[in-house]
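Milestone 3.1: sequence recovery, worked example.
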């Protein structure tokens, strides 16, 4: 397993995904599209922490860089090869002692239904399991979020932890 020190001293990589998609670190120029995403009803429904301004988005991007440097998480834009942002994916809550990390995402409305989230989750999961060496990844979301449940299932995550109604977490490997 990679050590947190190795990650802290490295550059956050871009990851290739299927369908000519790339996961790349966020850039300041992405702030308007990132902020605009939170106007979408579905993103607002499932993501209760929302930025209020482009300036705040850029602060979040700084926090994302800090997460990488402190080896606590990684955040990417899901983008086409021409750079257009289609969504967001992140892994956070890194626990190097137990080899556990969490995964979260959203996709812009116009890009939904084409497998973008599924491809991104698979690319991130492969990197986190094979390159970093985590042994368990979890997605925490509501079982009422059917689209997200489908993403989890299609990406190979297993349903578990349904003791609390409407809540579940999946695990890969
Ligand atoms: C959940 C979400 C990330 C899925 O992204 P996506 O790129 O559309 O995912 P996929 O294309 O892999 O499709 C997954 C499922 O979405 C559903 N879906 C298909 N077309 C859709 C559309 N136009 N709009 C919404 N959902 C659609 C289907 O159930 C599909 O499963 P299927 O392929 O078995 O039919 C996206 O709908 C989203 O951002 N939703 C709002 C925020 C959210 O729920 N985030 C996750 C919280 S943990």
């Amino acid at each position: 397993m990679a050590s947190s020190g190795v990650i802290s001293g490295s550059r956050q990589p871009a990851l290739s995904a299927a369908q000519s998609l790339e996961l790349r670190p966020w850039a300041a120029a992405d702030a308007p599209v990132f902020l605009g995403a939170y106007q979408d009803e579905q993103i607002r429904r499932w993501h209760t922490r929302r930025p209020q301004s482009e300036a705040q988005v850029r602060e979040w991007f700084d926090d994302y860089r800090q997460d990488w440097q402190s080896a606590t998480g990684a955040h990417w834009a899901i983008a086409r090869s021409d750079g257009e942002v289609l969504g967001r994916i992140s892994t956070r809550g890194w626990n190097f002692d137990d080899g556990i990390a969490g995964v979260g995402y959203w996709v812009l409305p116009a890009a939904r239904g084409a497998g973008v989230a599924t491809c991104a989750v698979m690319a991130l999961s492969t990197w986190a399991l094979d390159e970093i060496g985590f042994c368990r990844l979890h997605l925490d979301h509501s079982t009422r979020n059917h689209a997200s449940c489908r993403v989890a299932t299609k990406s190979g995550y297993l349903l578990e932890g349904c003791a609390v109604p409407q809540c579940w977490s999946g695990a890969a490997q």
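Residues 42-43, 46, 104-107, 112-118, 141, 145-148, 150-151 surround coenzyme A (CB under 6 Å). The chain has one domain: 4-172.
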